[in-house]
Amino acid sequence: MNWRVILLTTTLETIMTFNRTFVEKKQYEEYQTTKFPNKKLVILTCMDTRLVELLHRSMDLKNGDAKIIRNAGAVISHPFGSIMRSILVALYQLQAEEILIIGHHGCGMTGLESATLLENAKDRGVDLDVIEPLEYAGVDVKKFLSGFSSVEENVINSVDMVKRHPLLPANVPVHGLVISPETGELDVLVNGYTESKV
C-alpha cells in the first residue's frame, strides 16, 4: 500500500474525529453569520499558510466580514476565469462593494519557473508526454505553470485587469496591497479611492 494513501487516510480521520466533536459541542455557534460580507469586501489573496489567520487579524476582519478568494500568488491570469467570476458574483449577488487584491512578500510564485514545477511533477510519477497534446490544443503549459518576477508587479497587473473588466462598474474601488507574512504589515500599492476605472 502507498504510504501517501495511509497518511491521507490518517489525516482525514483526524479531521473527521475533530469535526464530530466540534459539531457536538456546538463550537460553530461563535462563527455564525450570513453569506453577505459585513464589511462589503471581496479579497483576493494568496493561499500561503502564513496568511490563513494573520491576514484577517492584521486587517481586523472577523468571520463574515469579507468574501475571501485564494489561489497561488493572488493571480488573476484570465479576465474571464474563475477568479474574476468569483469577484463579480461577490459584487452582484453578495453585496460586496470594494475589491482588495493582496499579495505578500516572499511568495512562492515569485520567480517560479515552469521547468522546476514540471521536474517535480515528473519526480511524483507524472508522464510529461501529456504536454505535447496539450500544447497542440493551444495550451501554453509553460506559461500556465510560471510565476511572476515581483509580487508588486503581479498585484498591480491584477488590479489593472479587474479595473479594465467590462462587467465592473466604474465606481467600485479596486485596491492593491502587499502584506508581510511575518508581521502582517500592509503596504498600499494602489488606492482604489483615488484611481478611477481606466
TrEMBL record:
Keywords: Metal-binding, Zinc. Its EC number is 4.2.1.1. InterPro entries: Carbonic_anhydrase, Carbonic_anhydrase_sf. It comes from Alkalihalobacillus alcalophilus ATCC 27647 = CGMCC 1.3604. GO terms for molecular function: carbonate dehydratase activity; zinc ion binding. It catalyses: hydrogencarbonate + H(+) = CO2 + H2O. Zn(2+) binds at residues 46, 48, 104, 107. Belongs to the beta-class carbonic anhydrase family. This is carbonic anhydrase. Transmembrane segments: none annotated. Gene3D superfamilies: Carbonic anhydrase. It comes from the Bacteria. It is an enzyme of class 4 (lyase). Its cofactor is Zn(2+). Binds 1 zinc ion per subunit.
